[in-house]
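Changelog entry: the ABC transporter permease record was regenerated in this release. Current contents:
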Amino acid sequence: MRALAARLWRLVVLCVKGPGGRLGLVYFAAILALNFVGIQITLRLIAWNADFYNALQKLDAGEAVRQMGIFAIIIGINSAQFLIASYIRKLLQIRWRHALTSVMLDRWLADKVYWHLNYDDGAAVDNPDQRIAEDCRLYVNLLTGEALELITTLAGLASYVALLWQLSSFPLAFGLFGMAIEIPRYMVWAAPIYVAVSSGVTHLLGARLMRLTVEQQHREADFRFALTRLRQSTEAVGLADGEAVERRILDRRFGGIVANWRRLINQELLLGCFTRPYMATVLRIPVFLALPAYLAGQVTLGGLMQLGSAFQNVVTSLSWFIFSYRDLAELAAASRRLDGFLDRIDAIASRPPTIARRPSGNSTLRLSGLTLDDPAGRELARVPALVITKGEAVWLRGRSGIGKSTALKAVAGLWRAGGGTIEMPGGTQMFLPQQPYLPLADLRAAALYPRPADGEALTDGARLLALVGLAPRAEAASLPGDDPDQQQRSLSGGEQQRVALARVLANRPDWVFMDEATSALDQAAEEQLLALLRRELPHATFVVVAHREPRGLGPLTIVDFDATMAASTEPVTAGRTPTPHYAADAIPALS
Ligand SMILES: Nc1ncnc2c1ncn2[C@@H]1O[C@H](COP(=O)(O)OP(=O)(O)OP(=O)(O)O)[C@@H](O)[C@H]1O
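Regenerated structure tokens:
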């Protein structure tokens, strides 16, 4: 319970401290104030019961009609109070969800945490997208609902109990084993006993429900993830005729949903067997309980109805726990998942990198004693000691799996486990992976990424696409009604890599790191495009990981990872430098 309270509190603090979250406290206070007005209205309604039914008992038509008018006014005020309060509550939900989502996004994107959560076994989190989109929504909606209800219920309870105390001045007298027993104000005692027994039964029947609800959300997310993955891999699956395997995977995941769902509905049925009759009787019980006093002439019909209404309010306030059990279970589950997500993020942020990465203070990149470990601390690779100076073109080669890509990730600051030192040069850097990322935008904007793409820049994006041989695509992208998703899906692997090369021209980095970034191009196109890059960025440094020699960049320095696994610690400032096959400026521009 204390752990749950700590989790809820941690997340509330994030809601309040997030952008615009403080104003949410004002909304919260305004809703509470309106809810307290609601309590006063309910008390007035209870008093109205006595007046109205007493008028009926006296067959006083004039008074009964007057009471109907009063009833209309009370209900009018009640409705206004309810609607305004629930409107402000929705504004509060928007504000706090925005604040919490914004904080979560900041934490997820800071220090490349999103990358570590995906790649790092020790910190892997299932479905971070669900945490940010779904759990933030659930948490804020349920929290604002339940917290406000709890405070209002407690405040209302005090008022209703005081009223019930005042109204039920008569005792319950009966005989037991020859003894005369009298319970003074028994209606007041009956309410908590009635609710305590009911709450106990609900908790007993509902405890399993909480675990099953958590599990259900987990399985739903897994199923969604499998569907998304299939959608993203349609081509590979289609080519491999993998439908049957995919279907089995989806069936298995959906089967998991159904199996848990069955357990869930059984448990809900069990709980419903109690809560349903409970809800139906809770409104009648007070009248039955007060009947002896009415029949004994101790209360009038109006008094009986007023008493019934007061008792009902005490019982429904006390029964808050029963009615809210499901929502509370969901709130506890969402806060546990969000809290766990934040713990993972904290764990990553607090884990110091074991590879030292610092500025070199000049225009060279220097790797010394660099080793790469996997997340469990096992050594994956040793990287050649290396000094690369500004303007060079360096080819990193070596057998598959030797650690070339991981070395580039270490230089980029993503891979932090291992040893040794990376001294980074000044200037801007750009890293191109084998599979380029295409943002959710039109192709001209994709060609500029991560440069912002507004109206003017889009024209530049189109020009660059044309430069890398994608002129028809650029034209199509500028047509109104063009579907960017469709455009991107229809790009071949080589065309996607051309878009990434256009990005280099758009962002003009001082250092370009390419990891098999032209592997899908034919050799002639590769040469032409690399020569284009060299011509457009004559002072840039190119560090290329590739299995075939990258031609077109001018004289190459070759760094052989295979040789270094034999443990050289001497910096490689110039390996074998083959004569360029083409002078860069002799390469014809692409049409
Ligand atoms: N997240 C990870 N966790 C554990 N091991 C990893 C992880 N990423 C890569 N590795 C391992 O690190 C080693 C080096 O991988 P890397 O991708 O750097 O090789 P590479 O030389 O670029 O290979 P290729 O030429 O095939 O692209 C491989 O054995 C790979 O399995």
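The longest strand covers residues 364-373.
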